[in-house]
Structure formats: structure tokens, C-alpha cells
Write a structure and sequence with these properties.
This protein is mainly alpha-helical and about 240 residues long. It has two domains: about 140 residues, no CATH class; about 70 residues, no CATH class. It is built from 13 helices and no strands. The longest helix has 18 residues. It is elongated, with a radius of gyration of 21 Å.
């Protein structure tokens, strides 16, 4: 899937690239369609999490967030449920077909006697999902991040949060302001990229400095950034290409 992610990067140029909605649609069509192919068959394998790596990378491209950004925030900003949640729901949807569709190859099949605890068969490890897959993903996504102490929560559906209609450059800067992880001076020096650890305003440029900088055209709150208000978009436009 690395080659598909490279194609996605070509679409996400900050000057001429596609809009965020198109990039998200391309990620689902190119990357997720490949990474989740036949997921009900292999989703219970101990090696299933290896597929999460390129899928997480695809979400980072969609959002424009840096690698240091927590994954729960990346999923929220991309409007895509975590890979493990999507696989579990896909397997449960297939289990419903197995029980209700006479054309299914496993219709009426009884699970064999379990002899090894390490084996998680399809019939024993899934539960029929009654309802739409999108609703099931949303419910389990909320359960998945229920223990999160922050304010990151899924929206009313699987879609981009407010601000997805902006240009990709503004969208990327807005998401880095939302997540609190950007290319600040302190991190750039710590990562060995040189430069100065101070902002143009003269203060030490830490991760939270972008929201509090005196050079911002408007002073916004975290809620303003999450709702993509006009002031938040103005601040994102100001930091485009520099955060």
C-alpha cells in the first residue's frame, strides 16, 4: 500500500493539490479498499495490526498532521474510524450474511470444537451486526475512545469535520492547530533541522505557541478551531506553510 500512499501524496499538494474531501475519498478508494480487502477472513490474526501502519499513514496525508500527532486525533480529523473498528464491523456484517443468506458458503455451518486458545475462528469470534455498517462503526468508534481524557470524540457521522471545504494548505494548518502538533521552533531544533527556536514575535515557539502568538490576526479558542470559525480559518491561513 506504500505505492498507493505515494499517489495520495501527489494529490495533496498545498499549492495545486486536490481539496480535502477529494483526498479523503481517494484514500478510501485507493488505500482502504486494498488494506481491508477480505478483512472478515484475516481480521482476527495476530498480524492484522501490521496493516494499520500504511492506513494510519493515509490518514496523516488526508489531515496533513505530523507523525507525532496522536492517532485518536488523526482519525477524528480524517473522519475515518480506526482500522480495528472497521475490520470488526466488516466481520460482524459478514457473520450476519452467514446466518441469514442461504447462498453463503458457511450457511448453517456449525463451529468446530475449539482446541487451541490461540485460534479465533470466524464463527466464534464474530457476532451478527443488525443494522447498517456505518452506524455500527460510529458506535464502536465512540466506545473505542471512551477512555480518552481529552475532548476528541467522533462526530455524528463518518465525514470530515468543519473546514473540509477549505484549500488543502489551510486545511493542513488548521488540523495542526487543532491537534496542537506542528513544526514549532523548539521541535525543529530538537529534531536537528536547525533554525531558531523563537517565533517572529520574539517568544519561544513551543507547540501551543501558534494559538497564542501575538501575530495572529484573531485570538481563537480550541472550540473555534474544531468548529472552523472564520477567525480560526484566518489564523490557519496566516500559518499556512509555516506550521
Amino acid at each position: 500500500m506504500a505505492a498507493r500512499n505515494n499517489l495520495l501524496r501527489k494529490l495533496s499538494g498545498t499549492t495545486w493539490g486536490a481539496d480535502p474531501i477529494t483526498v479523503r475519498t481517494a484514500a478510501l478508494a485507493l488505500c482502504y479498499s486494498c488494506g481491508e480487502y477480505a478483512a472478515p477472513v484475516w481480521s482476527r490474526s495476530t498480524h492484522a495490526k501490521k496493516v494499520d501502519v500504511p492506513l494510519n499513514d493515509a490518514c496523516r496525508i488526508v489531515t496533513g498532521c505530523l507523525r507525532a500527532t496522536p492517532l485518536n486525533k488523526i482519525y477524528l480529523l480524517a473522519g475515518i474510524a480506526p482500522p480495528s473498528v472497521r475490520r470488526d464491523v466488516s466481520a460482524d456484517v459478514e457473520r450476519l450474511r452467514q446466518e441469514s443468506d442461504v447462498r453463503h458458503p458457511l450457511f448453517g455451518h456449525e463451529p468446530p470444537v475449539a482446541r487451541l486458545k490461540s485460534r479465533k475462528s470466524f464463527l466464534r469470534g464474530t457476532t451478527p451486526l443488525w443494522g447498517s455498517g456505518s452506524h455500527g462503526r460510529l458506535v464502536r468508534w465512540r466506545e473505542w475512545c471512551a477512555d480518552d481524557a481529552g475532548n476528541v470524540r467522533p462526530g455524528v457521522d463518518e465525514s470530515l469535520p468543519p473546514g473540509g471545504d477549505a484549500s488543502y494548505g489551510v486545511w493542513r494548518a488548521l488540523n495542526r492547530l487543532r491537534s496542537g502538533v506542528g513544526r514549532c521552533g523548539v521541535d525543529m531544533v530538537r529534531w536537528g533541522y536547525g533554525g531558531c527556536d523563537r517565533c517572529e514575535c520574539g517568544l519561544l515557539q513551543k507547540r501551543d505557541h501558534f494559538r497564542e502568538c501575538r501575530l495572529n490576526p484573531v485570538q481563537c479558542t480550541q472550540e473555534d478551531y474544531m468548529n472552523a470559525t472564520s477567525g480560526a480559518l484566518a489564523v490557519a491561513q496566516f500559518w499556512t506553510g509555516r506550521i
